[in-house]
Each structure stands twice: as structure tokens, then as C-alpha cells.
Amino acid sequence: MENKTQNKHGQVAIFIILAIIIVSAIILGVIFKDSLFTQKIPAEFEPVYNYYLSCIENDMQTGALILEQQAGYIQQPDFTPGSEYMPFSNQLDFLGTGVPYWYYISGNGVVKEQIPSKEKMQEELNQFVDEENINCNFEDYEQRGFEISLGNIETETLIQDNSITAEISQPLSITFENTTWTSKKHNIKINTQLGKFYNLAKEIYYNEKQIMFLENQGVDILRLYAPVDGSEVGCSTKLWQVNQIRQDLINALTVNIPELKIKGDYYTLNAPENKYFVKDIGKETDTNVNFMFSNQWPMKIEVWPSEDDIIRAEPVGLQEGLGMLGFCYTPYHFVYDFAYPVLIQIYSPTEIFQFPVVVYINKNQPRESLDAESVPNVVPELCQNKISEQTVNTYSTQLSHLETTIKFKCFDTTCSIGQTEKGILKANFPQCANGYIVASSEGYETKKYLASTISSNQHTIILEKKYKLNLEITEGLAEADYAVITFTKDPDKETKTSRTIAYPEQKEIELSEGQYQITAYFYTNSTIELEGGEKQQCTKVPRAGILGIFGLTEEKCFTINIPKQTISYTISGGGKQMHYITETELKNSNTMEINSEAFTTPRNAQQLQENYNRLETEGLDIIIS
């Protein structure tokens, strides 16, 4: 009996295991049916499908390029201006494009971090690919008799060190004569070092955040190129002009910041003096890293005590113990607040990832290091206190009611308010004296409207309609070249907006009526070899011993090893042009031509620099038809 019972239990267990296996197989079959039973694409459909994949690849490449150029952002954070007290907005203007700071001090003196996570970058890249998908043009294939149908697209990207992979969920149907082929899932991979460069950027940033090597170098520059504390031989009052000190510091930053390097295979440490400029971030890297400063960027310098832009030091006569020296000396001690941007670029011959930070010397000392990382997105306290009723009316330029999404921005905080119904929204807002009501609607330019919400009020906002124009470049650009064109609307206002196009991959732009600064950079394939070598960098430092006490200096020279570099694409044309575009022009036109005089193709570093200089003075020929 016991044996029979055991046999029955064993049989039941076998049936249970078999049932689990069968159910699991069914579930796995349902989940992976698209990949397990994918129908092989017929040969006659391959050109169409390959074009579809290349179209998405181009969108991914363009999105990755924008992420690299804009510090990990495609959709930039809302612009926040600086102030007279602290002149840094939340973006650094680099060649006409705003690059979000990873660390800066806002106009009201609050420390800010805005470092995008890799997940955030992937979300923005997903959205970018989805939105750009409508630009895939199958007209050539449709003229040959193909019928192509595309459904809604949903993109999931994964940024890795040397590539980006994407899983595209989009129904695609191709029909030719009596044959139809369909597919719903598409896998794409592009080669890019975005992930590798982003990871290195974070390592550099967090090392700087911990040991503040930029601030420490800033203190050295301040003490070497400006009167901080010390003495000078003489019996007369010593005067310095603050404006001249500012210029001296700008010149010093221009010379010293580019000499900074990250320890790695490209930079040798044979000469001990090189260690001053080579920074160790805890690991060696074989990737090029460049540090930049421009005298066109905002800088804060304030010095105490000062009077009418003059700082003064009074002499001290012969004192006990100094009689043997036989002269007077003038001691001084001044206190500085000194802040400036540094742009950090991680690059290869074909890619560059860049992010800026503000270096801040506070009362002659490096600013305090930050222990906390960026605060995750939470509902700000301001948005939790909506107590002021406001009425918002939104219209098109034809004065018809417009359905819009309404947000409210006060200083650095943006709150979601709601949707208009028949162009009207009555809702509670946070109280703010000088905030912005932000109205957005599909097909219209987002409008920022300055408003006070301390008390109940009504606000009328008119949004300009956007129109599509085809872009053409007929002069100044060869067939194999490419261009990067930026359209900045209302460049002199705090509410300025920008759009950037990579031509010829992108040949359409949406614009609304307004004043635009159009900036174009034409690039051509011209290889320039920049020879490596050694460079002597000399600076004056205080002498050792008692002579250093009296301000006497000596010249100290550093040997800098510069690696050999190859530049593949160089500036070959372009310029800047202010142009007002009316709605009538946009409504009645289809094409915008942007032409430039072609520059001489540079063959060496000097000619390359000359072309960059020409960009600042050359105009553009803008034709809308």
C-alpha cells in the first residue's frame, strides 16, 4: 500500500511539472512571438526598409550630437537669467548656443546643480526620435509603386559606453503589387562615445566637487596676477585700479585654463613642473579633455576695501627690527570675490561632449565643497501653495480662442497649472511679484508672459503660429559638406528661444513671426595635422625666503607636453545675420535659402583660426520664397 501511494504521488508530481513547462512555453511564446516568428523581409522590400532604419539612425545620431553639445540635454532647462550681483544664468553662451551649467550660482546667490542622469538623457533621446520620425520621407519609393504605412512610434534607447541601442515599436507595412510585408519591432544600434564621454564627465565633475582643483587653481591665479596680500618696497602710497585688475585676471585665465590636463596616456609627467597643470581624478584616461575660458563670458570680481574703483595700500616707515634694511615697505591685504565659467570638453576627432561649471573664489578661499548630489525632482514648496486666483485668456494672432497648457514660473521654480477650455483658464496660482505665465499649444510658439500673481488678476496671452519652411543652401557649401544652423528668436530678451538644425540631415525648420539671429557654421572635410611638442609656460612667483615677504618675485617656467592631434572637419564658411520674419512671409512661403561666402579651405592651424575669426564678422544671405 505504501508503495502504491508513493507511485501515485510521483505520477502527480510529474504531471504538475509537465503542466508548468507547457504553461511557461506558452507564456514565453506569446512574449517573444515577434522575435521568434519574424517573417523574413522579401528582397524587393529591403531598400525601403533599409531607408526606414537609416532615417531613424540619423535621428539617433542627431539626438546624440545635441546631447553631447548641450551637456546631456536635448530639451534645455527653462532659461534663468543672472543678476548684477551674480551675472550667471543657468546656461553658458557658447558660439551662440546655450549649454546648461552643471554647477552655477544663480542671480540671487543660490548654489544650483543641474546634472542630467543617463535615464533622463535616454528619455529625451526617445522623445526626440519619436518626434523626428515624421520627417522620414518615402516619396521616392512611393513614386516607384510602393505603398508604405507607418503607425505610432515608441522608442526605447539604451546609452552604452561606445554605442546606443534602440528598440523601436512601430507598425510598418510595405506593399508592392500584390505582396505585403509588415513588422512591428525594429532594433537599431549606432556607434557613439556619448556614454563613455558622459561617464568621464561625471568623474571629472565629482572629483572637482570633492577636491575643487579648479577653485584651487583660481586661488593661485588670483594671488599671482592680482594684489591680495603681501608688500612692496617703497615709501609711497600704492594704488591699483580694479578695472585693470579685472583685465589682468581675464588675461591670466585665458592663458592658464587651457593648460589644464587630466592625467592619462596622452600626457607624460617626466618633468616635475608638469604636475601643477596635470590633475589626477583617481584614474588615468586615454581620452582628450580640454578646459576652456573666454574673455567674452561673464565674470564676477569684487574687492574690499575699495573706493571709486581704486584699492589703496599705505606705506609703513622704518620699524624696529627693520632698520638694517634701510627702506620703507607698503604692506597690503585685500579680499576678493572672484567667479568665472570654465567649459570642460571631452573629445575625439569626431565627437565632443561638453559641460560648463562656475568656479567661485569666496573671500579669497575656494567655495565650500558640496557633499550632496542633485536633488531628485519633487513638488516644490512654492507649487504646493496655490492661493491666488487668476484668469488666463489665450488667443492666436487671428484673435481666435486657443487651447493651451498653462504653467507658472517664479524664479527657478516652475509649477503646472492646467489646461485652458475654449481659450480660458481660471485657476489658483502661487503668489509671485514677477513670475512668468508659460502658455504652450501644438503648432504654436510657446509664450512667456510676465505677470504678478500677488492678487487676483486677468491675463491675455497671444501665441504666434509656427510655419514649416524647407531649408536650402545653394552657395558656400559643397555636396559632401554639412552645416549647423541656429535660429535664436529675440536674442536680446530674457525670453529668447533657440532651435538648431543639422543640414543636410534636417532640411525643415518651424518658425513663427519675430526677430531672429541666424548663425551658420559650414564644415568641410579637410584634414589638418596639429603637431605635438613641448611648450614653455613661464610665470612670476614669490621668491623663497625673506625676499618673498617683500613682494620680490622670480620667473618660474613649466614644460608642457602637447600631443599630436588630427582634425577631420574644419570651418569652411558661415556667419551671423539678424533677420525679421513676418507671419505673411511664413504663410506665403515654402523655402528659406541661407547662403554664405565660401572661406578658403584651411590647411593649417593658422588658417583654421582665421576662419573662426571670420565667423564673427561675416553676414548671411537670407532669402525666403
In short:
With 625 residues, the protein is an alpha+beta fold.
Provide the helix percentage. Answer: 10-25%
- The number of helical elements comes to 11
For the largest beta-sheet, the strand count, sense and barrel status come to: 5 strands, antiparallel
Mean pLDDT: 81
Tell me the count of domains.
5
Tell me about this structure.
- Helices cover 23% and strands 40% of the residues.
- With 625 residues, the chain is α+β, with helices and mostly antiparallel strands.
- The chain has five domains: 2-35; 38-77 and 118-192, no CATH class; 195-366, no CATH class; 382-463, Immunoglobulin-like; 467-624.
- β28 and β29 form a beta hairpin.
- The radius of gyration is 31 Å and the shape is globular.
- The model is unreliable at 32-38, 265-273, 317-328, 371-378 and 544-551 (pLDDT under 50).
SSE topology:
Elements: H1 2-31, H2 33-36, H3 46-69, E1 91-94, E2 97-100, E3 103-105, E4 111-113, H4 118-132, H5 139-143, E5 146-150, E6 154-159, E7 163-176, E8 179-191, H6 194-211, H7 213-225, E9 229-233, E10 238-241, H8 242-256, E11 261-262, E12 278-279, E13 288-292, E14 300-304, E15 310-313, E16 329-333, E17 335-347, E18 352-362, E19 365-366, E20 386-396, E21 405-410, E22 413-419, E23 424-430, E24 435-440, E25 447-451, E26 457-463, E27 467-472, E28 482-489, E29 497-503, E30 508-511, E31 514-530, E32 533-542, H9 546-549, E33 553-562, E34 565-581, H10 583-588, E35 591-595, H11 605-615, E36 621-624
Parallel strand pairs: 11-12, 20-26, 27-35
Antiparallel strand pairs: 1-2, 3-4, 5-7, 6-7, 7-8, 9-16, 10-15, 13-17, 14-17, 17-18, 18-19, 20-23, 21-22, 21-24, 24-25, 27-30, 28-29, 28-31, 31-34, 32-33, 35-36
Helix pairs in contact: 3-4, 7-8
